[in-house]
Specification:
globular, 114 residues, 8 strands, mainly beta, Cyclophilin, 7% helix, 1 helix
Length: 114
Amino acid sequence: MRVRFHFNAFELTATLYDNPSARDFVSMLPLALEITDFSSNEKIAYLPRTLSEEGAGPFGNEQPYDLCYYAPWGNLAMFYAPYKHPGLIRLGRFDTGTAALRVKGTFPLTIDIQ
């Protein structure tokens, strides 16, 4: 499944993986959230409720442009640089528009099914 992220006149698309957390995320769409910078390698957005953690566990091969769910805080983590952190569940990967993740600031964000 593909989803669209809109903020600050940018559009990004991501392809979601077939896992319980990603399916739970899709069940909440469409969403109106706020996206903001966090650390030096990601943007985050807090979800209105927690996602399923069924099937979660450590993973390797982390790469920029992964879309993850950070279970301890209940937020989306959208990486644009290398990362490695426990507590993440990978939801999918961004396909297009990835340069927008490097734009600094806090913006209204909408997410819907493509």
